[in-house]
Amino acid sequence: MVPNGWIQVTLGDLVQKSAFGPRFTSELYSKDGAIGTIRTTDLYNDGEINYATIPYADLDVSEYEEHVLNEGDLLITRSGTCGIPCIFTEQEKPIIAGAFLIRFQLKERVYSKFLHEVLKSAPVQSSIKRMAAGGVQKNLTGTSLKKLHLSLPPLPEQRKIANILSTWDKAITTTEKLIKTSKQQKKALMQQLLTGKKRLVNPETGKAFQGEWEDKYLNDFSKVIVSPVDKKTVEGEIPVELCNYTDVYYNTNITKKLDFMRATAKQSEIDKFTLEVDDVIITKDSETPGDIAVPALVSEDLDGVVCGYHLAIVRTNKQQADGAFINCLFSMPKTRYYFFTLATGATRFGLSIGGINKAHFCLPPLEEQQKIASVLTAADKEIEVLEAKLAHFKQEKKALMQQLLTGKRRVSLSS
Predict the structure, then answer these.
(1) Per the domain annotation, does 122 fall within a domain?
(2) How many Å apart are CA 305 and CA 128, to the nearest integer?
(3) Structural domain count of the chain
(4) Which of the chain's termini has less CB crowding within 10 Å, N or C?
């Protein structure tokens, strides 16, 4: 049912003209080129154009004048990741669409930013995906896209809806930038603090921590425990919650909030492989060597959660090493490279206990370890708060899109 005052149209009804981007050899690209070319690789999946990565080509502007993009032109990817819609914003130099994009010049009856939101919406994206023809390499045509059915409100309402959604986009973009900056700052902080280049202030003395850092192997201050507990449920065994590979791979901290897998284990396995606070868990086996020894910290009491298969527990001697600090060291490029080179296998890579034990670390005194870990943990929490905020903004925008772009919720045009 079309909302009151809205009309049912096709994309073709809103388009003056459409065309594929022209083809030419990439050998013409030059830093002093006269014409920029938007490629599919210059587009983000959320429908934004990365103008910073656009290459420029030595082309005669007069020969490509009809292909030069205008403010508000709609571009849609026609091959590979089909159906990504983008709206062009005018730049200093002339820009044309690449050969794997379709350019649509729009009529005045449609506001380009409103149409952009409609084309990004889940229902319309589903329709576009169904239109894509081909096997592994999908393709779209301008003719098929013009058959897309859309609901169109009056132009003033289009503008108001687009402006409302744009406010959420700005909040999302700002938060994404804050997350990126916070992650860069944390990375720089890790590089300084975990190598001793920067010494923190000892709260007991009011001065920077003193004392030499000591070179040690992992087994000098930790015990490595490799778990054989799989995800099977065996009759006669004891039901347990299992921390598995994906829990470790996708999380910095292992907490009760995670939805642990249900499995069974023998009492002897429960006694040996139950996780403790301050344990560092690492991925011991993986399909690629780059995913070996990814760490996560058990940061709270898990009430009996058992460590699963393809993982190893690094349990520190609490008098010598702080688990949170060791967890940070496992994320350092030097440590990541050590385990990358140590991983053996063909279709599946793994680490030996001996190899894990001989990982080399440089440790400050325990009090300094704890202080460094607390600073980096605070940085992690700041990032987590921002990521939760970002997820909230995205969910709110998605809910608004479902209401505003379908007319279920109408906007006031008086303000």
Answers:
(1) yes
(2) 45
(3) 3
(4) C
The verdict on residue 2 lying in a domain is no
DSSP assignments along 3-39, one per residue: PTT-EEEEGGGGEEEEEEPPP--GGGB-TT-SEEEE-
Distance, in Å, from the CA atom of 214 to the CA atom of 326, rounded to the nearest integer, reads 14
CA gap 214, 207 in Å, rounded: 21
Residues 91 and 200 in one domain: no
Do 20 and 133 reside in the same domain of the chain? yes
When computed from its CA atoms, the radius of gyration of the chain, rounded to whole angstroms, is 28
Rounded Cα distance, 208 and 368, in Å: 10
For the chain, percent of residues with pLDDT exceeding 90: 87
Q: In what helix (H) or strand (E) does residue 348 lie, and over which residues does it extend? A: none
Query: Do 262 and 332 belong together in one domain?
Result: yes
Domain that holds residue 340: 214-363
The model's pTM is: 0.82
The backbone torsions φ and ψ at residue 349, rounded to the nearest 5 degrees and listed phi first, read: -105, 150
User: 197 and 119 in one domain?
Assistant: no
> Rounded to whole angstroms, what are the CA distances from 29 to 23, 57, 124, 240?
13, 4, 35, 60
Instruction: Evaluate if residue 137 carries a pLDDT over 80.
Output: no
The packing angle between helices 155-193 and 112-120, to 10°, is 60
Return the DSSP state at 390: H
398 pLDDT more than 90: yes
According to the model, what pLDDT value does residue 84 have? 95
Cα dihedral: 323, 324, 328, 329 (round 10): -30
Name which of 116, 93, 94, 97 is nearest 106 in CA terms.
116
Distance of alpha carbon 350 from alpha carbon 369, whole angstroms: 29
How far from chain centre, in Å, is Cα 313? 27
CA 279/CA 298 separation, integer angstroms: 5
